[in-house]
Amino acid sequence: MPNPYAELFALPGTRGFTAAGLLARLPLPMAGIGIITLLAQTRGSYALAGAVSATFVLTYALLSPQVSRLVDRRGQRRVLPLAALLSVLGLVLMATGAWLGSPSWVLFVAALLSGCMPSMSAMVRARWTHLYRGRPQLQAAYSLETVLDEISFIAGPPLAVGLSVSLWPPAGLLAATLLLALGTLALVCQARSEPPLAPRELATPAPALWRHRAVAQLTLLMMAMGMIVGTVDIVSVAFASEQGQPAAASLVLSAYAAGSCLAGLMFGARHWRLALHRQLLLGALATALSTLPLLLADTVMQLGGAVLLAGIFFAPTMIVAMALVERSVPQHQLTEGLTWLLAGLNIGVAIGAASAGQWVDATTPRNGFFIALAGGLLVLLVAAWPRRRVSIAGQTQ
After folding, report:
1. Are residues 231 and 371 in the same domain?
2. Can you give the residue range of the structural domain that contains 126?
3. Which helix (DSSP H) or strand (DSSP E) does residue 254 occupy?
4. Which of 133, 223, 256, 277 could form a disulfide with 348 if both were Cys (CB 3.0 to 4.6 A apart)?
């Protein structure tokens, strides 16, 4: 049986933009934790660090779809360098302001500028879609990108924290800045694989996709999935500490990522005959059910098993959601549509982490997983909500 992932790279340029995309997506997970680590060391205030980091995350979630909307109209080569430059300036201002003791308002301005960071995951997915639209290889490409997203969120935070703690407080954030600049430059230099523009879209801007029913519904679904991820991140640390094994938290979180990566690769290697909307419903049901074992864990080992099970259903559900967006929005708005889903995921992670943290402080670590259960139920409700099926051109079927 041929390897579907090897077939992806048969076309020239695919290896190049995949490598550039991996490099350019690392700054996003590095920046959020890098801001917290930097400000905790230089200002000694986790409240300030959390507020500034939240400003960055929310600004990114709101602005990245607008950046992608411009990309769909003007092209990656025209928009990405400017958006990345604004983000680079913000990250440099953040590092400099924190180190020199600038007023807090400077840090919030820096967070707003940093939030101009483009969604590199969406840019690379748009290139894969341009190459393999309507072909079986596209599912494998989306699967690969989901796994690379997971890898970036596994490798990025430890890299940022390690550099800041062992070398110099601003080092983690400055490393993210350098990676963003180099990754963006490497991606935009590869013009051959960039999705082409339709001339009429340059003259007539399309309606904003946040009003598109399918995009709004799938963005809400991704937000609910993000709540589960954010809850697992926070509660796993608190649970392991309560058990007297704080270092084991990293193993628990690695189990979640490993389950998601493995499932994503296996899912993309097969051709599924079931309709996408039915795949989404089954994935949502499995996701909701997989949150129940989290409430039953009594030991770190049991929690690791429960988290591994929950991670198994994350990547396939996300892959199907991305495929549905590709089928639901006009071709010239694909980057924006994909970015809305990724933005929803990031907002959900922030909501889940904040809510679970409050719940853990008020009750017990294990009770924090009720936030994940709520996220799972919301995933199922959104997936089961009646909606019109739409074609690639946006016509009702």
Report:
1. yes
2. 13-136+153-196
3. helix 248-268
4. 223
The CATH number that applies at residue 79 is 1.20.1250
Same domain? 161 vs 222: no
Q: Kindly state whether residues 168 and 221 are assigned to the same domain.
A: no
135: pLDDT strictly greater than 50: yes
Q: Are residues 84 and 215 in the same domain?
A: no
Read off the tokens for 97.
């302001």
Tokens of 47: 């409240």
> Is a pLDDT exceeding 70 seen at residue 17?
yes
Distance CA 175, CA 323 (A): 33
User: What pLDDT is attached to residue 365?
Assistant: 80
Residue 394 has pLDDT above 50, yes or no: no
- Domains contained in the chain, number: 2
| Rg of the chain (C-alpha set) | 20
Q: What does the alpha-carbon distance between residue 144 and residue 315 come to, in Å, rounded to a whole number?
A: 10
Question: What tens digit of pLDDT does each residue of 217-238 get?
Answer: 888 998 999 889 888 877 877 7
Query: What is the chain's mean pLDDT, rounded?
Result: 82
Do 49 and 172 reside in the same domain of the chain?
A: yes
CB 165 within 8 A of CB 37: yes
